[in-house]
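Shipment paperwork, digital attachment
Item: protein structure file
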Amino acid sequence: MIFKNLFHKILAILFSASIVLSGFLIFFKTYPDNLISKFSDAVFYGYLKSISKIRGSVYELVGDIKTSREAQSKIDSLKSENNNLRDQLVDYYDMKRENQRLRKLCEIKEQNPDMHLLDASVIGRMVGSSKENIFIDVGKSNGVSVNDAVITENGFIGRVSHVREYSSSVKTILAPDINIGAIGFDEKSMGLISGLSSLANKNLTRMILTEDNNVNVSDVLSTSGFSGIYPKKLKIGTVKSIEYDASNSCRYAVVSPFDVIDDVQNVFVITNFANKGILDY
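Attachment content:
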C-alpha cells in the first residue's frame, strides 16, 4: 500500500509538471520564429521522452516490489514449513529414545520377573552437588522407601537417600558416601563403590579394592546384592584404570558409569524384588 501511494504521488507530480510546461509551450508558440519557441520545443519533447522513461521505470519498480513481496511470502512459507519439519523430527527422536528405554525396561523385567519398577522423572538437582544428589517425582505415596535402588535402562545410578510424600532424594554413584557393594561379572572381584568429588566432575566414580582383588581395566562391574538391600547384578559401569591411594594405603578402580549422570532425566525405582532384605554371602 505504501509503494502504491508513492507511485500515485510520483505520477501526480509528473502530471503537474506536464501542465506547467504545456502552458509555456503554448505561450512561446504564439511567436513561431522566436528562438525561445524553438528552444521550448526541444525542451518539451525531451521532457516527454524523459516522462516516458520514468513512467516505464516506475512500473518496473512496482513490478519488482510485487515480485519481491511474492518471493518473501514464499520464503516465509518455507521457513514455517521447515520449522514444522524440525519439530516433527525432534518429536520422532524423542519417541525413538523413549521406545528404546521401554524396550530395555522390558528386558530387565523379563530377566527379573519379581522386580517391581516404578517409573519416575528427575525434577531437580542439589545446588553445589548436582552430580551427586538428584530429586525425583515419586515418594511415600508411591511406595518408595529409603535405600531403594534407582536405575535407568542402562544400569544402576544410585539409591534413595530421603523420602517425602510425593518426592525423593537420590544419592548417585558419584557421591563419596554412596557405599554400594560391587563385583565383577565373574563374581570373583569385589569392592565398595565410594565416589570422589574430584572424579565426580568427570562423571567417574571409585571402587575401593581388597588386597586380593583381581579386577582389570575394561571389566564390567555390577551390584553384589550381598546385603539384601539391592538386587544382584545391576550394571554399574566399566573399569577405566587402577590407581593407588597413598594416604589410605589402598588400591582403587576408577569406574565409568553407563550413564552421564547430569543427562539423566528418567529413572526407575526398584521398590521390591525377590529376596529383598535377605543377606546373601
